[in-house]
Amino acid sequence: MAALLLSCGLATPAQAAPGVQRTVECQGDWLPATPTSPDIMNGQLEFLDLPAVTVGKDVNWHLDPYKNRSWQMVFQSLRWMGRLVADYEATGKEAYLSRAIEIAKDWVQDNPPGGSATSKYAWAEHPVALRAPALVCLSRHVSAAWLTESLAVHAHKLADPRHYEKGHNHGLDQDIGLLRIGCRYGNKAWRDLALKRMVGSMELDIDSQGALREQAPRYAVYVYDRLRVAIDTIGDCKLKVPAALATRWDGLPRHISAATQPNGYMAPIGDGPADVQPAGFDHADETVQVFKAGYVFGRTTWGDPQSAYYSIRFGPGLKFHGHEDHLGVTYYAQGRSILTEAGFHSYENTPYRRWTLTPEAHNVPVIVGRKLRGHTPTALTRRSIGKDRQSFTLTDRAYGVSRTRAVLVNHRQDVMAVLDTAKSDLRNLWHLDTSLKVVSSGKGQVVVSDGAWRATLVQLTLPSCTPIKGQRIVRGQTQPYQGWISPGYMRKVPDAVVISPSARSLLTIVVPGTDKPAVTCSGRTVIVHAPAGPVTFKISGSDLT
User: Residue 490 — left, alpha, or beta (φ > 0 → left; ψ -120 to 50 → alpha)?
Assistant: First the structure.
């Protein structure tokens, strides 16, 4: 939870002020850019792009102005206090250091572990992990029993296996915190434990293909940034970086770049906002990549905003930052996002947040009248990868009966075809990008526009291969939630979703660039007359070829 926005807006390390020692513990990528030191001195704390909160000289550590766990986590982490110490090193302003000491000492005095008045979030595992380096930074300029004793308590908490988040980004932050304390005070046991755990944890969190197993590719960016901090910390401790750790770190860019759409934004999969723009990550040569962690990412070419792009979800059942999005697809073509996801809003336990985790917030087939069996894995049973056409078949029993989805993507003449079949009636959902307006709906076709540009979603029932009528366009519904998109953290806007009628077998075809696609069938052969020419494919059982 809540690591999502911590790596945004990192401050740039500065040169030390004359007469002040610049320390490795007080500089680097762990420092937040907001609030600034002048803000903190004025008692103004701004976290997560939420309005600033005023705190007094004697800080109230029970503050929770937005009823937001992420805000509390950042507040209790004291990394904003560390900003003061870093800027003291850069400017020599004694007032910054004095205020940092006041803040840290006040926190230590007011939040003893297990204290009756201790903030309920003060000793949660992630704030402890992130606060430890901030206190280590302060210890480079302050020699006081209250600080060294508190750091010892932090180390024991971080070393306790009962609180360790193995195979998760929180575990990495815990290891960084413990390593910093161990190196600062020459405690070999803490140092060695942190390094050993870090290697084992990252081998669980990042697979041999470089894919993050937390089921939200956006977190791969966070883990990549934090691994850079970890590797710097290992170097600061005069230790050798384990080869296995470096290998896992080196593999992440392949996953990050694959999950990034041609417009530069990451596909909003799992707990990943739609407004994340990774930059500077190397990519593989392949335009289609299948990750055993549960992702297919494909594109026409690299480096062209007009490239077609798609994602498909399968793999292990839901965990960590994942959603119930198996069999889900996104589609981008001709410079536009067409099919997207409801996305990530926040970690707050609200009805809306809970809805964003459900299949109904994703582009998936839902079995009518049956209850979802959460955490069900999905198998990728077939793949065919050509230069201009790819097709995949996936299946699971997430509703207690077999449901199968075949996806075919054709390039040059841009077409996506999706065949959903099940042993029971199903319906599917198609969340449209917020840039698109529904122009018309009827006779089995939904036409959308972005200015003069058009795209059409065609739905046919099988085996008759006839248009299926009765699509519903839902927008901004609240009981139950449907027809919403979260374009960023703590934001949601009404948006159109197409809900199909129910059928045992349903073929959906997305044709970018036209509002009048002609679709004809001859036996099991389908011909789509796209703007750039005809696209022909075959239906073979539950597969598309």
Answer: left
- Among 376, 378, 409, 377, CA closest to 392: 409
- SS3 (DSSP) at 333: strand
> Do 149 and 181 touch, CB atoms closer than 8 A?
no
| pLDDT per residue rounded down to tens, the chain (545 residues) | 444 444 333 344 445 566 788 999 998 777 778 899 999 999 999 999 899 999 999 999 999 999 999 999 999 999 999 999 999 999 999 999 999 999 999 999 999 999 999 999 999 999 999 999 999 999 999 999 999 999 999 999 999 999 999 999 999 999 999 999 999 999 999 999 999 999 999 999 999 999 999 999 999 999 999 999 999 999 999 999 999 999 999 999 999 999 999 999 999 999 999 999 999 999 999 999 999 999 999 999 999 999 999 999 999 999 999 999 999 999 999 999 999 999 999 999 999 999 999 999 999 999 999 999 999 999 999 999 999 999 999 999 999 999 999 999 999 899 999 999 999 999 999 999 999 999 999 999 999 999 999 999 999 998 888 999 999 999 999 999 999 999 999 999 999 999 999 999 999 999 999 999 999 998 899 999 999 899 999 999 999 99
What pTM was estimated for this model as a whole? Answer: 0.94
For the stretch 173-207, what's the b/e string if a residue is b when 16 or more beta carbons lie within 10 angstroms of its beta carbon? bbbbbbbbbbbbeebeebbebbbebbeebbeebbb
113's tokens: 């572990």
Six token digits for residue 45: 């704390």
Structure tokens given for 494: 């009404």
Q: Residue 431's closest CA among 498, 332, 511, 481?
A: 498
Which value, to the nearest 10 degrees, does the dihedral of the CA atoms of residues 190, 192, 196, 202 take? Answer: 60
Give residue 436's identity as a one-letter amino acid code: L
Distance CA 194, CA 57 (A): 35
Q: Which residues fall within 8 angstroms of residue 12, CB to CB, at 6 or more apart?
A: none
Cα 31 to Cα 208: distance, rounded to the nearest angstrom? 30
DSSP-derived secondary structure letter, 24: G
3-state secondary structure of 313: strand
Are residues 406 and 393 in contact, defined by beta-carbon separation less than 8 angstroms? yes
CA–CA separation, 509 and 437 (whole Å): 18
- Listed in sequence order, the residues at least 6 apart from 95 whose beta carbon sits closer than 8 Å to its beta carbon are 41
* Inter-CA distances, 320 with 2, 7, 171, 222, 357, Å: 12, 19, 12, 14, 12
In whole angstroms, what is the distance from residue 17 CA to residue 96 CA? 13
- Contact between residue 365 and residue 420 where contact means Cβ atoms under 8 Å apart: yes
Angstrom distance (rounded) from CA 403 to CA 324:
14
Nearest partner of 32 among 137, 113, 107, 118, judged by Cα: 137
